[in-house]
Amino acid sequence: MKATRDSARAHLFDYAVVSNEQVAEGAWCMVFKSEVAALLAPGEFVEVSVPGDPSQMLRVPLSFSRADAEAGTVRIEYAVVGDGTRRLSLMRPGDTSTLVGPCGHGWRLPGGEGRALLVAGGIGLPPVLAAAEMLAAAGRTFDAVVGAQRGSKLVGVDVDLLKKAALADPASRVVVCTDDGSLGRAGFTTDAMAELLAERSYDAVLTCGPTVMMAGVARLAEGAGIACQASLERMMGCGFGACSCCNVAMRDGTSRSCCMDGPVFDAGEVAW
Fold it and tell me: What is the pLDDT of residue 234?
């Protein structure tokens, strides 16, 4: 039976690799075909089983930049940081395995009609690209700040797609930053964000990237009185809230599960 959105939670799907190529320093892009493509919402993620080592029982949690329901394909970008993602990078077109998805809670379309500000760092760019396309589809305007340590670590195709999503509004700005100045302007994403906040008004901020960057983004948004959503990165051992590996400390003293309550949180509620 063909899956529907209402039956989406924690379902097992097959996937088949369409392409899998290195796109930046330490970063790869995979496109796979799966029925889950029709069910994914921007900001959600999938738990991917990677073949090659039967002793590795845990799946790899991966966000996505684009899910094409009509073509039945999903595009993910990932950093090779351990054995699971290393084996993932070795998968070739036609290879198959399974995944669980859609997982978690994704981006919420901001209320109001004002401009949004997107801030992405490193491999946090894919879910921010998904947010940009969500906003564009809803007719919402946005600016974006994208950063990386150096130009070679920035996924250029995602930056191009982000700029394309912003084209509907001639006034939109997409600012590229690198720590070493090798691409775009030199400096941190938070520096560029602070400058934009001084120049323009925003109704919402959406961010994903390194924790220290998102903490800075959250502080700037709070200081400006702007609602901020942050897509957090945690080691999600099981993907359904049982292992407590991905707990997120909250300002009210409680903790929440990143895989079940997130990965997108109200940044103002997180204890950074």
Answer: 82
Return d(Cα 238, Cα 253) in angstroms, integer. 24
CA 266 vs CA 59, 128, 256: distances in Å: 26, 15, 12
The pLDDT mean for the chain works out to 92
Average pLDDT over residues 186-215: 97
Contact in structure between 172 and 142 (CB atoms under 8 Å): yes
Count helices and strands in the chain by DSSP H and E runs = 6, 16
Q: How far apart are CA 269 and CA 8, in angstroms?
A: 27
Alpha carbons 149 and 9: distance in angstroms, whole number: 36
- 138-165, pLDDT tens digit by residue? 999 999 999 999 999 999 889 999 999 9
Residues 6+ apart with CB under 8 A from 28: 20, 21, 22, 77, 78, 79, 80, 85, 88, 89
| Phi, psi of 117, rounded to the nearest 5 degrees | -120, 125
For the chain, the helix, strand and coil percentages under 3-state DSSP, each to the nearest 5: 30, 35, 40
Q: Which long-range contacts (CB under 8 A, 24 or more apart) does 186-193 make?
A: 188/147, 188/213, 188/216, 189/119, 189/120, 189/121, 189/145, 189/146, 189/147, 189/213, 189/217, 190/119, 190/216, 190/217, 190/220, 192/145, 192/147, 193/117, 193/119, 193/145, 193/217, 193/220
Nearest to 35 by CA among 107, 91, 126, 99: 99
Rounded to a whole number of angstroms, the distance between the first and last alpha carbons of the chain is: 44
Please tell me whether the overall predicted TM-score, pTM, comes out greater than 0.70 for this model.
Answer: yes
Cβ atoms of 193 and 104 within 8 Å: the answer is no
Nearest Cα to 245, choosing from 232, 259, 231? 259
